[in-house]
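Researcher: Here's the sequence for the chain we discussed earlier.
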Amino acid sequence: MNEAELLARLLSGRSNETSFVERKPGSVNKAEIRREACAFANSTPAGEESVIFVGIHDKMDKPTGIQNMESLQKKIREALKEECYPPISYLTHELLYEGETVLAVVISSSSSKPHFTGPAYVREGASNRNASNEAIKDLVLSQIDKCREILRHKNKGLVSVNTIDYKLGDKLPMRRPYIQRAECVVVDCTAHTVQLHQPATGYTYTESLAGVTVGFDDAKRRLLLIVRFPN
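Model: Thanks. This is the structure I predict for it:
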């Protein structure tokens, strides 16, 4: 999400918060950051992004500004990377809004959910709520089901593998649009990783399960794994 898109998101919900936008003043504390980020990471639909705008009054929609950007960035990093489990991936963007600098914290749908920091939170309308036992079960099963489906194809012939803006085995995403199509054999799959062997090259790759989406290759009538660099 670029600066123009972020400002449009901020202005589109100007008079109220939405399911995917929150506003917090520059004085926001780590507990509030953890709560909002966990709710977004657990509830944002696949392919979508949520935003916490820091430096804006959540009721009056007026920019409050940020006194110490370095301190705020450190607070966010500690809250989301060290105090949430699993850690929540995010991106930040500094924006100029009505003459003040505000910080946009962008959180994508997470393949590592559920995320916890004390109680588990999910998003309901424009507010957060404690996840029910049923909601927690659904979050956990979404990850278990993916692993189970991949294991059904373990050592049972070729599966299709498409990588998006990423190459198998790389440590970083591509900086340009890129699609790689490969044929692999599923060697193994755990709660955290999937191991793929590519006969054409002889290489075996271990990829984060968080970056893998399970689909179906209609043309070849077989499992399709879509691999992105994990968020």
